[in-house]
Design brief:
single chain, mainly beta, Fumarylacetoacetate hydrolase, domain 2, 2 domains, five-stranded mixed beta sheet, 6 helices
């Protein structure tokens, strides 16, 4: 099943609604403003499957971040060996964790604004895990049962701010910098796929999502040891090799470019790069 958050209306009258995608048709799931609200409701899978609200064409749909207001966005650094190597780091014994905030999220087709303060804006394609069942100290064996599904995220990074200190947060949670979506694909329909990033059609990153040091199930177990995971929480599982900062010469996003992030079986983010007003 594929679940999305659709924007409806315009201007001050704009709202959002959770929808189910069936081919080229989006069906409203009445009573739920977004996918996060749906996930926080017991029996959400049955509710979504049975939904028969108003319908909309997928083509041209104005989509918000699939979970617009997650309680937590926990990110993982150094989880793909080819990225670890290109950054000159050692394979970690434990996951490297940092956070984002919900203000950083944008929709899968929204414009990506380069901030006035940074000219070293880099791409990082990532598989996002979305939690569907609350849990604390979840065993790795039970972790899959706490995952609602998967989505596509780009951890767009302001490298100059990121490396000002040994803590990365200030370069990783810039407001309206993180495309997320287009859909949450339930775990029964996704077992991995090729993840790619393209800038103006030129492939920069291309790695299978399962080529990781720490699996999604391990990350759910590890993070839930530290803090309770709630429905709608998001874990961004790390980026593979091919980031612009590691290239020689270094490459960063420029105004007018188009950033496309794709994971087979999950969908595509397509974001035009503009300059912040």
């Amino acid at each position: 099943m594929r679940l999305l958050t659709l924007r409806t209306g315009t201007g001050t009258g704009q709202n959002t609604v959770a929808v189910r995608q069936d081919g080229d048709t989006l069906t409203e799931i009445d009573g739920f403003a977004d996918v996060g609200a749906l996930l926080r409701t017991e029996g959400w899978e049955s509710i979504a499957a049975a939904a028969n609200g108003a319908t909309h064409p997928y083509d041209g749909a104005d989509l918000a971040a699939v979970v617009p207001f997650p309680g937590k966005i926990i990110c993982v650094g150094h989880n793909y060996r080819n990225h670890i190597n290109e950054m000159g780091r050692e394979v970690p014994e434990y996951p490297t964790l940092f956070a984002k905030y919900q203000e950083s999220l944008i929709g899968p087709n929204d414009d990506l604004a380069l901030p006035q303060e940074s000219d070293t804006v880099d791409w990082e394609s990532e598989l996002a895990v979305v939690i569907g069942k609350k849990g604390r100290r979840i065993s790795e064996a039970d972790a899959a049962g706490h995952i609602a599904g998967y989505s596509v995220l780009n951890d767009v990074s302001m490298r100059d701010y990121q490396f000002r200190t040994i803590q990365w947060l200030q370069g990783k949670t810039w407001e309206k910098s993180t495309p997320f979506g287009p859909a949450l694909v339930t775990r029964d329909e996704f077992s991995g796929g090729l993840m790619t990033t393209a800038v103006d059609g030129e492939i920069q990153q291309s790695t299978p999502t399962n080529d990781v040091v720490f699996t999604p199930e391990f990350l759910v177990s590890y993070i839930s040891t530290i803090i309770t995971l709630n429905p709608g929480d998001v874990i961004a599982t790390g980026t593979p090799g091919g980031v612009g900062h590691a290239q020689d010469p270094k490459r960063y996003l420029q105004e007018g470019q188009v950033l496309v992030t794709t994971i087979e079986g999950l969908g595509q983010l397509r974001n035009r790069v503009i300059k912040e007003a």
